[in-house]
Write a structure and sequence with these properties.
With 603 residues, the protein is α/β, with parallel strands linked by helices. Helix 1 (22-30) runs parallel beside helix 9 (238-250) and helix 2 crosses helix 3.
Length: 603
């Protein structure tokens, strides 16, 4: 077993003992700021400074106490990102109850399972539209006594009514007594993982679990109270939620994006210094920039792509960027890169990427243009961060997930699996000791299910998934994730799934990047009709064959994608083909495209 390299990262000594203590700390340290959280209501920004946010949070807590909520009660929160999400989260914690965040677009069956399994007593919902989606399940779940809508609707109780109830029945002594009985090791939240198969599992995370991340993650980034950030990833996942806890600790202001289509517009308006993302959005923004380059005329177009090729050669470790290369980069910056940065508001310094592997090429390009793209790694069960590339330490390398945080121990098992022990490892799965024992061994190591290794600089690399490795009929083991991540470097590829369990060879289902494909067709003089028709076009199929062959040359013979089928329908969370964290559900996709799989392997 290989142990993680310790880098002497010092934790922050002033991290409080409970998550809700972060709010009064913000008021004390950063009370001069006019914005802790902001969200749009009727297309207008509504800002909450620390004091106003704290007052409303306390009012909700008083309301919950008046309703009889006690320590250990479970309260569900089904909401899109907004400052009220955070208020409700902290208000629940302050009375010793447990927040159950639920992603709004999960299936009806998953809603039903989570409500019944958690035995939630109160449900908070964003609006009437979302309430209608779950109203029948709420009505049939005996444990649910109250439902509140964040955005008011006639005939239903609103969050404001609960705030009013709290204000009319304020009992500061009772609230302080409730806070006092909450301890560092108590469960703060139960997050039901979407998973790629089986029923959701309730991950129990304590205040200590998540605060241990804040203590050791914050020193790894040069982020401070002068930073504004936008947020679009769902707070129902621990990734973005932990980021927001870090923001409160560091004194940052967060602006919630209520519409994914408005991200670029919001960046131009807010001009953030950093934000967190998943690779999918970064890839889309990158392809948008490239499409603009393809539309340029005259000398501007070759200059654009000269600069792009230059950026692709950038060494993010800065060990091999020679003098001549740096001079070229300065010219590219003046002619091209400064225009790219305007897309992000012109102040962006850092994008933190997680949730899935990002293409090393994108890390190089973004870093070359002056926006550090820093990849990290973790799971819900680890609160979530295990490792990250660090600007503070200067430990940055494309294709790795960076340094392991210093309060954790990571070892690589004999089968290549990443095992972790530390204060961030979950308490267990709610009501499921058997599954807990399956993933946390007798020595306290959590088995991640991911394969990995440490490189020569002590940085962690993810090399695949233990359970997603399949065996061909020829007896060869194939890691589909590795192949997928390699081929997805192609701008022609939107998504793909590598298949081949028990078959003679590996194959793939491919969802094209249709925007890029349209640009290619335009250049080649091919009339673009519909997505459905274009995936049947012989020239298009031949181009994808050429693209796949290019990446096949970098793979072993048994790993190469011998056949593929193009599909016109994007995999989505709503269709059940993607998890809420945007990972493909392999079994569901295979089921939905059984006819294409059969066609691929037909003799």
């Amino acid at each position: 077993m290989n142990k993680s390299e310790k880098l002497g990262i010092q934790g922050r000594p002033d991290v409080p003992p409970r998550l809700f203590d972060l709010v009064p700390r913000f008021v004390e340290k950063y009370g001069y700021k006019d914005c802790l959280f902001a969200g749009k209501v009727d297309r207008q920004w509504v800002k909450y400074n620390g004091q106003k946010f704290y007052e409303l949070t306390n009012s909700i807590s008083h309301g919950l106490l008046k309703l009889g909520v006690k320590k250990g009660d479970r309260i569900a929160l089904i909401a899109t990102n907004a400052p009220e999400w955070n208020m409700i989260d902290f208000a629940i914690q302050q009375v010793g109850a447990i927040c159950i965040p639920i992603y709004p677009t999960i299936s009806h069956a998953d809603y039903e399972y989570i409500f019944q399994h958690s035995e939630a007593s109160i449900v908070f919902v964003t609006n009437k539209h979302l309430y209608n989606k779950v109203s029948d399940i709420i009505a049939s779940t005996p444990s649910i006594k109250e439902t509140y809508l964040i955005r008011p609707a006639e005939g239903l109780k609103s969050l404001q009514e609960l705030i009013d109830l709290g204000n009319e029945n304020r009992d500061e002594e009772a609230l302080e007594a409730s806070k006092a009985q909450v301890e560092n090791g108590d469960v703060a939240t139960i997050i039901y993982t979407s998973g790629t198969m089986g029923a959701p599992k309730g991950v129990m995370l304590s205040h200590r679990n998540i605060l241990s991340i804040i203590e050791y993650l914050c020193p790894l980034y040069p982020i401070n109270e002068t930073h504004d950030s936008i947020s679009y990833l769902p707070l129902s996942h621990i990734y973005e939620r932990a980021v927001q806890y870090c923001h409160i600790y560091l004194g940052c202001s967060t602006y919630y994006v209520d519409n994914l289509g408005a991200i670029v517009e919001t960046m131009a308006e807010i001009k953030p210094q950093h934000f967190s993302s998943v690779p999918r959005l970064i890839e889309k923004v990158y392809h948008t920039i490239v499409r603009k380059g393809q539309k340029l005329k005259g000398i501007k177009k070759p200059i654009f792509f000269w600069a792009l090729r230059l950026a692709e050669r950038y060494d993010e470790t800065k060990k091999h960027n020679g003098w001549f290369y740096r001079q070229q980069l300065k010219i590219a910056d003046k002619l091209v890169f400064k225009e790219w940065r305007k897309v992000f508001g012109n102040n962006l310094e850092l994008i933190i990427s997680g949730g899935a592997a990002i293409q090393p090429r994108l890390v190089k390009i973004f870093t070359a243009i002056g926006i550090q793209l820093s990849e990290g790694y973790g799971l819900t069960e680890t609160s979530p961060v295990i490792a990250t590339n660090s600007l503070t330490l200067g430990k940055l390398k494309a294709g790795t997930v960076g340094v392991v945080m210093d309060n954790q121990e990571v070892v690589i098992a004999e089968n290549g699996e990443i095992l972790i022990k530390g204060p961030n490892v979950m308490l267990g799965y709610y009501k499921d000791e058997e599954k807990t024992k399956e993933v946390i061994d007798e020595n306290g190591y959590f088995h991640t299910g991911d394969k990995g290794c440490f490189d020569e600089d002590g940085l962690l690399k993810i090399t695949g998934r233990i359970k997603e490795i399949f065996k061909t009929s020829m007896g060869k083991y194939v890691s589909p994730v590795l192949i997928e991540n390699k081929i997805k470097e192609s701008p022609f590829i939107g998504e793909l799934l590598v298949i081949g369990e028990g078959q003679k060879f590996a194959a793939a289902l491919i969802y094209p990047n249709f925007e890029y494909l349209k640009s290619w067709c335009n250049i080649k003089g091919i009339t673009y009709t519909t997505d459905e028709e274009m995936i049947q076009n012989k020239d298009v199929i031949m181009r994808y064959r050429k693209e796949i062959d290019k990446y096949n040359a970098e793979l072993g013979d048994y790993e190469q994608v011998k056949k593929f089928e193009l599909i016109a329908k994007e995999w989505t969370i709503e269709s059940g083909e993607m998890t809420a964290s945007l990972k493909p559900r392999r079994s569901k996709i295979m089921q939905n495209y059984a006819d294409l799989v059969e066609k691929i392997y037909a003799e």
